Amino acid sequence: MSLIKNIYIENNSHHRLGITPKEIKANIKKVVDHMTNLKGYELSLLVTSDEEIQKINLAKRGKDKSTDVLSFPIVEKDLPEGYKILGEIIISIDTMRKQAREIGHSDKEEFYRLLVHGILHLLGFDHEKSAYEEKRMQEKEDECLQLLLG
Predict the structure, then answer these.
(1) What is the pLDDT of residue 48?
(2) Of 30, 44, 95, 110, which cross-links 6 as Cys (Cβ 3.0–4.6 Å)?
(3) How does pLDDT run across 37-67, given as a tens digit for each residue?
(4) Could you tell me the residue range of the domain that residue 7 belongs to?
(5) How many domains does the chain have?
């Protein structure tokens, strides 16, 4: 059983993106199911402002700046085999929109790019480890985005 524990989108911004929480949950499930063989998992998603993500980034990582996406994996022991609490993903809708304009694609596409990036971090991918890991993570991002956006 998969449980998307919390999806909290401040100011109902998902309406302006044309994405419902139900669609977000279904797409999270597609990505996690594609990347793992977990029988069940939990994760939380927060979509917030640059101001709020900056506060979180400072509190949790000691970096006093906003960013596009943060991922905080949770390593839990003593859970049933095949079940995992993955962690939390935080996306700044302000930075997401700015990046979408700069890159030249829709807000929805950028949202899913950031969401997939966050999920891959929760699954143990880390583009900052090495050039090889960066390339590997990018390939998996592209694969997952193809699955979601066609």
Answers:
(1) 87
(2) 44
(3) 887 788 888 888 899 999 999 999 999 999 9
(4) 2-149
(5) 1
Q: What is the pLDDT at residue 92? A: 93
pLDDT tens for 91-124 read: 999 999 999 999 999 999 999 999 999 999 999 8
Q: Which of 150, 138, 147 is nearest to 27 (CA)?
A: 147
The CATH number given to whatever domain includes residue 10 is 3.40.390.30
3-state secondary structure of 6: strand
Per-residue tokens: 136: 């590997």
Q: What would the DSSP string read from start to end of 28-85?
A: HHHHHHHH---SEEEEEEEEE-HHHHHHHHHHHHS--S--SEEEEE----SPPTTEEE
Backbone angles phi, psi at 82, to 5 degrees: 85, 5
Q: What is the number of alpha carbons within 13 Å of residue 8 lying toward its C-beta?
A: 11
Quote the pTM value: 0.89
